[in-house]
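Please produce the structure of this protein holding nicotinamide-adenine-dinucleotide.
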Amino acid sequence: MADQAIFDKKNILVVGGAGFVGSHLCDELVKEAKVICLDNFLTGSESNITHLHQNSSFEFINHDINTSIELETRPELRDFKIEFQGIQEIYFLATPGSPKFYSDYSVETMMVNSLGLNNALQMALKYKAKLIYASSPAVYGDIEDGQRVKEDYVGSVDQLGPRAIYSEAKRFGETLVNNYRLKFDLDTKIVRIFNCYGPNMKLEDGRMIPELIKSALNNRDLVVFGQAEDIGSYLYISDLIQALVGTMNGSESGPINLASDAKYKFSEIADKIIELTESRSVITYHDRESIMAPQFLADITLAKESLGWFPITLLDQGLKNTIDYLSAQKGILQPK
Ligand code: NAD
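Below is the modeled complex.
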């Protein structure tokens, strides 16, 4: 199991650290640790981490994790003294997460959850570091909308269906992580992150909340895929970050569902976005496309009990923060 850090600050590696979740995680971790953010900008952005470059406890490595890397030999990491101190924690977040991005980067998604994850697990072995794997409810496959799912539900996935790229990649990833745990006694944790939203999501991400906000800010129709009465749950990014750090520091190896247990009708989300943006948009409802995730809900009893965690951000506040962020993005206002 993981060694204790012998220096004043831990060395933490965040693989996929320039993405939506990873950049918020780097912001949090750098308060108390030395953070190595590794990313190849496949779907992440330099702008998510620009403000961290002045911090001497933060270093960025532009690298594709599908190729193994010797961190000790990187001159930019000299001050992290990796040859003496090693790495204590690894967060593995590197995957295109939205259906749009994992369809565009289908093979890359499969490879990073196998080859890339294996390289990160090898680093965890070498340094006796703890490793968290960010998985997804996609592993549960197709479940009826509105149902709540517990971690022990064994899903089923059509391996040739449009969502299989992501679901099968995450299922393989979970099995790989679990077997490093069993075979090498590695301290690993698996979290299944349900719909998360907040600042640093990409404008072109394609998921429901940024798409609706974009349309509202442009006074265009809000196109909702699903019916007004359909139910969803949405976890604000700062709540997710607390859960990820809590998982790393805790003893539960998972899998752990991380989600909000507040549920909202699609119509409530769309109405709230129109209200907060003072938009003149109208809402239209359309059939969901086969690539879109089913809207089942998470049972988060395990997260509450094992981490002492529960989400605290109200939808209004989370949406306001996301709207403020997206409104300030170049290219948000589009010509009619
Ligand atoms: P994201 O696309 O914003 O971040 C992923 C990051 O990984 C990007 O910065 C990307 O450039 C990087 N990356 C991809 N391939 C890489 C490679 N080969 N080498 C190095 N870096 C690479 O996605 P996100 O929303 O921040 O998701 C982070 C993780 O959480 C993913 O594993 C995703 O599956 C999981 N997750 C997220 C959500 C959510 O709602 N955001 C839900 C479920 C699971």
